[in-house]
């Protein structure tokens, strides 16, 4: 499950590891690399309040998968799910003194992100049509550049990622709509403290350069956490940056 500002290209470096295995001890998977509504070659949403969960489930059922495993970060459920973006709110009466130094640093980074780095999110989740990006390619590239160009490096990679947005089926700005629809449909980050926690097994991979990180004691609020691992490098685009680790 890709994130923003990303696309199905995020699986380019990890897909062969999943479809070929490595030895007789590793499972081999069918991989469905989706494009979220409004991204790349997917149609843009035509109705208000479209559901992220429903759209994913309908896709998998239409492809003949009654059970499936998901992996994703950011905007990325089935038989099991793995995420490199576990985020939720704190449990009641949580003991702040119980957090590890890494978790305390993660909360400080989260506070810094919310204060200084989340302007794009507030803009796109409230007034997504306000910014004029369609007629300004340099401005559009700037809107994507935050994390993408840093991890890509090569000019052809940068141009490929930008082109996926610029020549997308629904138009360059259609992907911005997902922020507004999700945040105004009761599925936003403020609703991730679930009244009914999914029982399917959840695994989490933690990368040090991820902008958002919460303490592990919060995980039971979003899923049945059975696996957690910390990596010594990597960030927001983990599948593309560190496919072997993921």
TrEMBL record:
GO biological process: epoxide metabolic process
Keyword terms: Hydrolase
Gene3D superfamilies reported for this sequence: alpha/beta hydrolase
InterPro entries with a match to the protein in the record: AB_hydrolase_fold, Epox_hydrolase-like
GO molecular function, one term: epoxide hydrolase activity
Keyword Hydrolase: yes
Family membership: Belongs to the peptidase S33 family.
Protein name in UniProt: Alpha/beta-hydrolase
Organism the protein comes from: Gymnopus androsaceus JB14
């Amino acid at each position: 499950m890709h994130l923003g500002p990303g696309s199905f290209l995020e699986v380019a470096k990890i897909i062969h590891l999943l479809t070929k295995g490595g030895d007789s001890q590793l499972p081999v998977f069918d991989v469905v690399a989706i494009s979220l509504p409004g991204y790349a070659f997917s149609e843009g949403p035509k109705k208000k309040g479209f559901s992220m969960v429903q759209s994913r489930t309908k896709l998998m059922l239409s492809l003949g998968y009654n059970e499936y495993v998901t992996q994703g970060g950011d905007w990325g459920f089935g038989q099991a799910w793995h995420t490199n973006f576990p985020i939720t709110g704190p449990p009641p009466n949580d003991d702040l003194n119980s957090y590890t130094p890494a978790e305390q640093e993660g909360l400080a980074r989260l506070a810094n992100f919310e204060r200084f780095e989340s302007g794009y999110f507030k803009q796109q989740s409230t007034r997504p049509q306000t910014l004029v990006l369609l007629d300004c390619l340099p401005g559009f590239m700037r809107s994507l550049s935050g994390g993408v160009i840093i991890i890509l490096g090569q000019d052809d990679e940068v141009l490929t990622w930008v082109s996926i947005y610029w020549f997308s089926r629904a138009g360059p700005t259609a992907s911005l709509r997902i922020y507004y629809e999700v945040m105004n449909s009761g599925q936003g980050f403020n609703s991730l403290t679930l009244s009914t926690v999914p029982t399917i097994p959840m695994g989490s991979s933690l990368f040090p350069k991820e902008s958002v990180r919460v303490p592990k004691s919060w995980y039971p609020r979003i899923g049945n956490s059975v696996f957690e691992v910390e990596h010594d490098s990597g960030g927001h685009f983990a599948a593309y940056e560190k496919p072997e680790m993921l």
